[in-house]
Amino acid sequence: MTASPLLSDTALIFGRYARQTLRSKFQILFGILMPLLYLLFFGPLLTGMPLGSTGSSWQVLVPGLLLQLGLFSASFAGFAIIIENGYGVVERMRVTPVSRLALLLGRVLRDAALFVFQAVLLVLAALVMGLRAPLAGILIGFAFVALLTLSLASLSYALAMKVRTPQGFGPAINSIAMPSMLLSGLMLPMTLAPAWLNVLSHFMPFRYLVDAVRSAYLGSYATTTMLYGGLVAVGFAVLAVTVGTRVFRTAGA
Amino acid sequence: MAIISTAGLARTFPSKAGPVEAVRGIDLTVRAGEILGFLGPNGAGKTTTLRMLTTLLPPTGGAATVAGHDLVRDPAAVRRACGYVAQSGGVDPNISVREELVTQGRLYRLGKAQAALRAGELAADLGLCDLLDRKTSTLSGGQRRRLDIAMGLMHRPAVLFLDEPTTGLDPGSRTDLWDLVRRIRADHGTTVFLTTHYLDEADALADRLVIVDKGVIVAEGTPTDLKTQYAGGPDASLQDAFLAITGRSAAPQESTPVAV
């Protein structure tokens, strides 16, 4: 019908799931609850602490909370597909000629849009709490949230297509998300950690992302921290979408 | 003219206890415009065969052509030519009938206007007009089944695969559905490939039956042929023929006396 079926297929799948999200105001706002509580009840504890940063404590905490929002919300995205698999929706779509990449991209782009929207709300709340950061840095932070949620949602859908039961999926995600959060220094920068923990955290890819967003919030953009963060985020996204598409192509085999 | 032909079509699943041969070599020819009943006990390989023919599952052996396209080399062309209605249907309970139909048409690459037009046409044809703006969760069993079939027909497929289309329907809805399947074939020449556990359904609806057991075809022919050959005469019951062919009882369906 059009020159690029991938684009129109992706738009079609995105539209279907975006409408689904818009029907549920609860879903739109619920994901922001946990990081918002951290912002309100944990953030004020840090204002007088020596965090080893040249900026304020909010410039350290808010980037961490943004990626925490992405980490927890996106990694549970697969629950939706377990429910859909129960209705036979995924299989029904897979017998049509629709692009397999679009089946994944339409879903994860909806997720990325939803979580970036939540990230915007969170930053607005943080501004009220006392955050001051350059606009460009804040925008770069949203780009990292988008890339992270795109990647994690892809992997989450892939895992959900394999595991297929909520009983198996929930614990699996929790056992990955918790150590990821702790080891990437989302709450407090890993530069405060003893050497062994600091070294260990370098094996956790999200650490590079949170370091990059903290750097952006301080207004320093042309740094190696930023370069590594960008490379890890893009590399991870390419890997995750490849894995996810593969699962949509071969599921049931 | 053959619209589906398979040669040695096979599927083996790996398992901890060694490979499981779900389908061990199916040689099958379906003529264009035929209503074919695909029968067999539970675990005989019916659904696995259906999942291979609809491109959901790659075969591990053999070859097949569906609507002139090779199943393995050109699955996209096979998908364009086929409609598939799974046992579970496959609509989202929170989405309206209209939105599901239009989206389905768009997945088959109809334009927006075309898809909306086709949805209205099918709704009129299948008695769904008053339901278009209802959520699919509010439909009765019979209405749901008609919607599932409408979903499979949005792109006017040459072949329609139905996996146990009347399971769970009341007798009136079942007869309505049989009429619908006959009408689809009569009006559009659509080839219908259906699996069922109900022998009365196979008897009433199918031009020809193929019976599979343990992953291979064990008998095929018209209902009358099978009764004559395996149960002693054309007036015998298809149930007796089925039991004689498979050497055991078919799916246990104690609650529904019309089934084996």
Automatic annotation (TrEMBL), chain A:
Keywords: Antibiotic resistance, Cell membrane, Membrane, Transmembrane, Transmembrane helix, Transport
Ranges that cross the membrane: 26-46, 66-87, 108-129, 135-160, 181-206, 226-248
Predominant location category: membrane
PROSITE patterns on file: ABC_TM2
Record membrane topology: Multi-pass membrane protein
Domain ABC transmembrane type-2: 26-251
UniProt-listed InterPro entries: ABC2_TM, ABC2_TM_bact-type, ABC_2_transport, Nod_factor_ABC_transporter
Subcellular location: Cell membrane; Membrane
Signal peptide: none
Pfam families documented for this protein: ABC2_membrane
Family the entry assigns: Belongs to the ABC-2 integral membrane protein family.
Protein name: Transport permease protein
Taxon lineage: Bacteria, Bacillati, Actinomycetota, Actinomycetes, Kitasatosporales
Automatic annotation (TrEMBL), chain B:
Plastid as UniProt keyword: no
Subcellular location: Cell membrane
Keyword terms: Antibiotic resistance, ATP-binding, Nucleotide-binding, Transport
Membrane topology, from the record: Peripheral membrane protein
Domain ABC transporter span(s) in chain numbering: 4-239
InterPro entries with a match to the protein in the record: AAA+_ATPase (IPR003593), ABC_transporter-like_ATP-bd (IPR003439), ABC_transporter-like_CS (IPR017871), ABC_transporter_ATP-binding (IPR050763), P-loop_NTPase (IPR027417)
A GO molecular-function descriptor: ATP binding
Pfam families: ABC_tran
Name of protein: ABC transporter ATP-binding protein
Annotated organism of origin: Streptomyces violascens
